[in-house]
Amino acid sequence: MTTLLDVKNLTVRFYTQDGVVHAVNGISYQVHEGETLAIVGESGCGKSVGVMSLIRLIPQPPGKITDGEVWFEGENLLELSEDEIRRIRGNRIAMIFQDPMTSLNPVLTIGYQISEALQLHLGLNKQEARKRSIELLKMVGIPDAERRIDDYPHQFSGGMRQRVMIAMGLSCNPKLLIADEPTTALDVTIQAQIIDLVKRLRDELGMAVIWITHDLAVVAGLAHRVAVMYAGKIVEIANVRDMYYDPRHPYTLGLLNSIPRLDKVGRRLEPIEGLPPDLLVEPKGCPFAPRCRFRTDRCLEEMPPLTPVAPGHEVACWVDVKTGRPR
Predict the structure, then answer these.
(1) Which of 93, 146, 220, 272 is the most exposed place for a label (fewest CB within 10 A)?
(2) CA-CA distance, 159 to 60, in Å (whole number)?
(3) Are 229 and 47 in contact (CB under 8 A)?
(4) Shortest CA distance to 38 belongs to which of 212, 164, 182, 288?
(5) How far apart are CA 310 and CA 239, in angstroms?
(6) Sign for the pseudo-dihedral over CA of 7, 234, 99, 63
(7) 79-85 long-range contacts, CB within 8 A, separation 24+
């Protein structure tokens, strides 16, 4: 498979009055053309900061990308000028945010907001951009698109606003779509519709998708591969089937054991004991070690690197969770 995006050792810090927040701590992964990579983990683990850093959307200051490379179609995005990255953002790489109501401008029609990107990136005139905007609204399932293009965001339901955001994201035929928890605020019926829509458009347009979520149920039917993040680190990455049926990191095991499953009726849920680490403290050793039932002395002192344990399956752990023995 052709590699579209190659992230190497991405490190992000936030310099605050309370100290330095170690938000993302040297993450590396690849995204291939046409695939969906899901990045999962609990709130505050660095999922959103990590993907927003790819297209330099974190506020600087207080944020700063202190290390790493982000290669996209032969260019290191972290070395581009502001004008150069602006030509890629919204054009070759698009992003859908978590809350469409705060992402859409409440005083501009949705037609104007979609047309703006078309005129800026594709050079269309107003009439061409309006026609293309109507086509996009129809593509994402907005009924009566010719009339609703002149409506304002507050005139749409939450699910319809998210469809508008997807239309905006797809307007310039991006190679990569980044979706930052786009279904979190929606009920489960609308969630399913949005997920089916993204899958259909991904297959029709041949684009790659990075899907950020904390909902493992969403991942199962959408992603090809899954990266699990904890405390700013990727601790496991594998194809979706291996992640569910053969998890190799204690944190991944904990996540899977803490959600209800229809194939294990009557089994008690097992919460992960303890609290996430304070990211103001520079990590030493494995960040999950204080909460881990498999930990050894080495876990407290040395951070394990991502190591292959099977084809396409990498884990950052000093212990084999299948046997409980050191690797």
Answers:
(1) 146
(2) 32
(3) yes
(4) 212
(5) 11
(6) negative
(7) 85/55, 85/56
Distance between CA atoms of 59 and 173, rounded to whole angstroms? 26
Measured at the CA of 247, the angle between CA 242 and CA 250, to 5 degrees, comes to: 165
Q: Token pair for residue 200? A: 């259909």
Letter for the amino acid at 204?
E
Rounded Cα distance between 216 and 220, Å, is 7
Q: Alpha-carbon distance 294 to 60, whole Å?
A: 39
Q: What is the helix (H) or strand (E) element at residue 195, kind and residue range? A: helix 188-205
pLDDT tens track, the chain, 327 positions: 788 999 999 999 999 888 899 999 989 999 998 899 999 988 888 888 999 999 888 888 898 999 999 999 888 999 988 888 888 887 889 888 877 667 788 899 998 988 888 888 878 888 888 988 998 888 888 888 888 999 898 888 877 888 888 888 888 788 899 988 877 766 777 778 778 878 888 888 888 999 998 878 788 888 899 999 998 999 999 999 989 888 999 999 888 887 776 666 667 777 788 888 888 888 788 999 888 888 888 888 888 999 898 898 999 999 888 877 777
Amino acid at 307: T
CA distance 115 to 95: 16
Q: Are 299 and 292 in contact (CB under 8 A)?
A: yes
Q: Who's near 167: CB < 8 A, 6+ residues apart?
A: 114, 133, 136, 137, 139, 140, 142
* Tokens at 117, concatenated: 């990107």
Q: Give the Cα separation of 33 and 201 in Å (integer).
A: 14
* Consecutive H or E run containing 245: helix 240-245
Give 100-105 contacts, CB < 8 A, sequence gap 24+: 100/153, 100/158, 100/161, 100/162, 100/164, 100/165, 101/153, 101/158, 101/161, 103/165, 104/153, 104/161, 104/164, 104/165, 105/153
